[in-house]
Amino acid sequence: MNLEQIGPRFPFGRLVLVGAAAAWVLAGAAQAGPFVRGDANGDARINVADPVHILQDLLAGGHDIACHDAADCNDDGVLDVTDAVYLLRCLFSSGPGMPPPHPACGDDATPDDLPCASGPCERTGLDAFVLVASAAPKNIILLIGDGMGPEQVKAAGMYATGIAGSLDFEGLPYKGIVTTYSANSAVTDSAAAATAIATGVKVNNGVISMAYGGDGSELHTLLEYFRDRGKMTGLVTTTYMTHATPAAFGAHEPDRSNTTQIAGDYLGQTRPNVLLGGGANGLSAANAQSAGYTVVTNRTGLLGLDTEAATYVSGQFG
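-> structure tokens emitted (318 positions)
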């Protein structure tokens, strides 16, 4: 089975959809649904666990699907990867940029039949990810290893144990791949690479979450997406706080060297609840305090924070 068949059908590719499905399955969460076709795991519920079940079953030889008629989502009499694709389309379509649901799904359900955790749910792009993940992890932490591509990971395993592929995280059950080359070069930099991760859009080297090349508009980031939905957000880095990698999630600048402006974007525009990293380089205790942030500068101050009362924290270390 070639999973590349899934990728082109979704604007955020395999990484978001498979990653979201993984979060759902690992948490053991499910939402009730009113239709039968697509209930591949036979639990009388329709959710992303069902296309994941189909894919896992196909990889295992195709013998464990609870109800083959239900799993044949596109109603073509064949169980294959297209059934998982069509079920995902039924679950997540109905917005700009998303493909329409396959007609077979329409016999039993529309996207509006799927209940949301609270209020109406959109089902486009990252909204689909939130719909799936909302009943799973309480917190989502994205860890970025600077320059850590596949070959660097391979080398690290060989250095640590003498065997490639031996690092703990390489044994996790779900994996995704995202490309981080820039819009104007095959050799990326921190700004363009982090922007690709934060926004899903390729930009020129040196650009922080703005559409260059393109029309120069600001690109909506993951941090802003979740902030707009009432989530607490934060950026933590081992380098200075206005470095290009964290900046791509919380700022919009045409040049990564605009550190003063990046700090201004943090404090006045995107306003992450937590900013922990090196100080200076455009960010100071004074400008953070004037923007309503509680400032700490050492370990003692950090450990002494009243986390119930402090809603905006700027840790400026070194």
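The mean pLDDT is 74.
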